[in-house]
Amino acid sequence: MKLSRIILLIFLSLIVVTGLIIFLVLNHSAKSLTDAEKEAALVNILGRKPILTNNEATGTVLYNGQYASFSYPAKAIVYTYKDPNIVKNKSELEMFSFDINNPRLIFNFSISDNSGNLADAKDSSGAIFRENQVNGYSQSEVVIGGAKGLVFAKAGEHPEKTGFWLTNNKLYALSVTGSDYQEVVNLFDGITTSLKFK
Questions:
Q1: Claim: this prediction has a pTM higher than 0.90
Q2: What is the pLDDT, as a whole number, of residue 12?
Q3: 155 vs 157: CA distance, rounded Å
């Protein structure tokens, strides 16, 4: 009986000592890393130098094209078209596109030569396509610089706001798509308030 008590006492002592050691190891405060050591560790993990500051541009930039001008967010990533194999549509006079990463937005602006083909912006293929969609574009008239245009908006899974204006024998098309309807509307409305046709 004495032997079983001694074995029990030794066993309980081992459990207490093991628990104490585990407690001390887990709660041991390690030496803080210097900024250089932290950066070296991140380089090792990422395989490249980490970007530890937010360098996102703020404010707006002016787009001043041949046929239109407007302000757009400075944080936009502008697309440049440099592929010589792309055949340019002869009626396309001007094109400007960008995207924004956060929130995710895509902006497209184009100007086409009308040459008397359309009587009104509502006769454009883009406007007709949106009018014929059964899954819910709302439609409104928007006047910019005296030019009456047609604007289509769609909430839901693939939010979009697109407008068409016909003035000076040119068809202007402006479109914003994204993942958040309110952000799509904010960008579209912000750009159209500064939009000027030339």
A1: no
A2: 81
A3: 7
Report the residue count for the chain. 198
39: helix, coil or strand? helix
* Per-residue pLDDT, 178: 94
Give the contacts of 181 (CB within 8 A, at least 6 positions apart): 155, 156, 159
Domain ranges of the chain: 2-46, 60-197
Pick the CATH number of 60-197 from 3.40.1000.10, 3.40.50.360, 3.40.1190.20, 3.40.640.10: 3.40.1000.10
Instruction: Locate 36 and state its tokens.
Output: 């250089």
Nearest CA to 99 among 73, 61, 81?
73
Residue 181 or 115, more confident: 181
Torsion of CA 188, 144, 125, 137, to 10 degrees: 50
**How many percent of the chain have pLDDT more than 70?**
89
Q: How far is residue 43 from each of residues 30, 33, 39, 51, measured CA to CA in Å?
A: 21, 14, 6, 10
- Residue 102 in tokens: 């956060």
